[in-house]
Automatic annotation (TrEMBL):
SUPFAM superfamilies: P-loop containing nucleoside triphosphate hydrolases. GO terms for cellular component: cytoplasmic side of plasma membrane; cytosol. This is CO dehydrogenase nickel-insertion accessory protein CooC. The keyword Nucleotide-binding applies.
Length: 266
């Protein structure tokens, strides 16, 4: 199963993606986390040491040249492979977090920000499109904020899109646009994760103002005061107790996701 975590900047995509991956892996699933943010940082949330620097695949010029036949920045006018070989990249480049959890740092695949990095985009796109899972495997992709991930066909072939939003009209309106884009790309399972919720009833009320009844399911993850404390110390979500709010809510979310995985659209 391939899960995309999308949403506006700062809503909690990385936090949700990390808590979900830790939860699913501790429930026995093999999880591959793909960090597709231009400022990759999910490693810290997963508990990787602060000083551990991973070079994103999209910045690994020699790898890109080896696989596509061109270096990033060489741009148009040269030929490069749009279908580079990617099957061994997880084995070679994914970092082990624990026995069931691996992290692959892809980095930005956003051409608009760095000029024409076409060979890097070809490699990132091939990787996202051609990663498939076996029965006990789940891929969780933490994406760049906003709609970019829905461009260039990067979000195709996901089984589930989790659009994270704060319980505000502004954040939910953006979430609605992202869910619509996901649906246009034939992602049939979509859930809006209302995150950092303090007042549950108020959050549901705001959600119902923006989304029509039955348009998309929502899921509530409450505000967890442990999380800002962790971030000050540069620690990962693995260092807070399993009975804390974030784990309580995200494990309920993971149960819902497993149902989608086993029985399709709910
Ligand atoms: N449920 C929560 N309870 C408390 N704080 C939270 C929660 N979820 C996220 N946060 C806080 O919100 C901030 C943004 O979270 P995060 O980095 O996960 O967002 P993001 O959507 O990945 O951001 P970006 O768009 O920059 O990638 C962080 O400081 C994080 O600690
Ligand atoms: Mg993030």
């Amino acid at each position: 199963m391939k899960i995309l975590v999308s949403g506006k900047g700062g809503v909690g995509k990385t936090t949700i993606a990390a808590a979900l991956s830790l939860t699913l892996s501790s429930n026995g699933y093999r999880v591959l986390v793909v960090d597709a943010d231009s400022v990759p940082n999910i490693g810290q949330s997963l508990g990787l040491a602060k000083h551990e620097e991973i070079i994103p695949i999209s910045k690994n010029e020699s790898l890109i040249e080896e696989r596509t036949g061109a270096r990033p920045g060489e741009g148009w006018g040269i030929f490069f492979s749009l279908t580079p070989q990617v099957d061994d990249l997880v084995d070679k480049y994914a970092v082990k977090i624990n026995d069931k959890l691996r992290l692959l740092v892809l980095g930005s695949i956003d051409a608009s920000k760095e000029g024409c990095l076409c060979p890097a985009i070809a490699l990132g796109k091939a990787l996202l499109l051609r990663l498939f899972t076996r029965k006990d495997e789940i891929i969780v992709v933490d994406s760049e904020a906003g709609a970019e991930v829905f461009g260039r066909g990067l979000a195709e072939r996901f089984d589930l899109n989790l659009t994270v939003a704060e319980p505000t009209v502004k954040s939910l309106k953006i979430a609605k646009k992202l869910v619509d884009l996901a649906k246009e790309l034939n992602v049939v399972n979509n859930i809006v994760v209302l995150n950092k919720v303090v007042k549950v009833r108020e959050a549901i009320h705001v959600f119902n103002e923006v989304f029509k009844e039955g348009e998309v399911p929502y899921f509530i993850v409450r505000y967890d005061p442990n999380i800002p404390t962790l971030e000050v110390k540069g620690l990962g979500l693995d260092s807070i107790p399993k009975n804390s709010i974030i784990y309580e809510d995200v494990s309920a979310l993971s149960k819902k996701i497993i149902k989608y995985k086993n029985y399709g659209k709910q």
